[in-house]
Amino acid sequence: MAKNTLSFVCQNCGAAYNRWQGKCEACGEWNTLAEEDTAGGVPVSIRSKRKGRTFALESLAGKSPDAPRLSSGMTELDRVTGGGFVRGSVLLVGGDPGIGKSTLLTQATSMLARAGHRIVYISGEEAVAQVRLRAERLGLSDAPVQLAAETSVEDIVSTLSEGAVPRLIVIDSIQTMWTDTVESAPGTVTQVRASAQALIRFAKKTGAAIILVGHVTKDGQIAGPRVVEHMVDAVLSFEGEGSQQFRILRAVKNRFGPTDEIGVFEMTGLGLREVTNPSELFLSERDLGTPGTAVFAGIEGTRPVLVELQALVAPTSLGTPRRAVVGWDPSRLSMVLAVLEAHCGVKLSGHDVYLNVAGGLRINEPAADLAAAAALVSSLVNAQLPTDAVYFGEISLSGVVRPVAQTPARLKEAAKLGFQRAVLPESARGETGGDAGLSLNAVNSLTTLVAEIAARGSRRGESNAPAEKNATPARFRRGEG
Ligand code: TYD
Ligand code: MG
């Protein structure tokens, strides 16, 4: 006999009960319980009689049509998607309001439409006139993008089912969409989830690629939150410091490509400009000759990126000194500080420490340890580091400088940008990939590097500037080793 799978489900929070009651105990809402079949929506009478359909099983080696991609014509965008939009895939672009999501997508869609593809842009947030105004400002109003200001998913799906299947559909934003199939208001979790589901079904059925725009809420999650993230094929996040012109597009999840690539853009009066050589951009406003800055030779995905790390170490009167970091992992900073204290004899407990990655870039690599340590010590002893040097290397808890991947690529980029020296892990010396034209300073322990920087500080202190005397290595006690 078929088991009874009917239960009472709260339409507000999704809690299920086997008896009706006036108030949902999970969320406290009144009158929200409705009877639902939790076995998958097929009526019991049909389900019990339905005989299972048979399907063919296939081998792994079988031929599947490879995922044909639609290249956007924007190199930086294609780099992040892994070579273009995959047919039938759904991509979520998240970011703070005003960061430039609509601008980016207006530019990408216009270029595709100009190339002869059927491209549809549905705006749920702005009126058609506003979207036109933006396109005009970007000099793209002649592009044959098909435009509409709509929010009903059913209407959108019916309209798009007519005529040729669009190659790409932009939904700006998923939070404004609503579907008849659920009762809750637009923007709620249930609506966002149901709307996204309907659009994903449409994409899989027709082969059109869909881009959903999602706003990030204050706590950094995409509202209608995260429910969409696991449903889509790729999640891109568009980030940047509000005050700066640089915008970074990063893949958070990608079923069809890498997740460590970044695309770099600059917001100008005429829209987003692609930045093909980010190192030049991140180093363009370098403060040459200031203590506390070190250039890190990093890798983002397949591309080397040089960026300046800035540190400020200042005496504090606070019982618990401040530790603030922008663009790097705070626990990584704590670790580097602990190693400096424990193994190199650098006393930092009486100092506030600030660390900043210039240009609004966010670094995830442990290879930045050495550059961060160099910047911190340089600030502490008030000794400027050589302006023509780059730093990279991971620091272990024992104070050993460990090798990192892709040494040749880092050195090549540094040489290309006119750097003369590199401070790198001793064990990486063998894999420099031939002479990159840099003079190499291989260090095997952090103590060595600290001593070198301290020596620069003392030389400086002796020669001039008595005011800086108290900023010389007097602050160092000899490390126990
Ligand atoms: P927008 O794409 O509307 O952001 P989002 O869709 O992520 O909310 O971009 C908004 C900001 O970009 C706005 O503050 C103005 C700025 N902007 C420019 O600086 N230059 C431009 O050419 C455009 C179109 C916008
Ligand atoms: Mg927008």
UniProtKB/TrEMBL annotation:
It comes from the Bacteria. Residues 352-481 are annotated as: Lon-protease-like. Keywords: ATP-binding, DNA damage, DNA repair, DNA-binding, Hydrolase, Metal-binding, Nucleotide-binding, Stress response, Zinc, Zinc-finger. HAMAP family: RadA_bact. NCBIfam families: sms (TIGR00416). Plays a role in repairing double-strand DNA breaks, probably involving stabilizing or processing branched DNA or blocked replication forks. This is DNA repair protein RadA. It comes from Bradyrhizobium cajani. The lineage of its organism: Bacteria, Pseudomonadati, Pseudomonadota, Alphaproteobacteria, Hyphomicrobiales. The gene is radA.
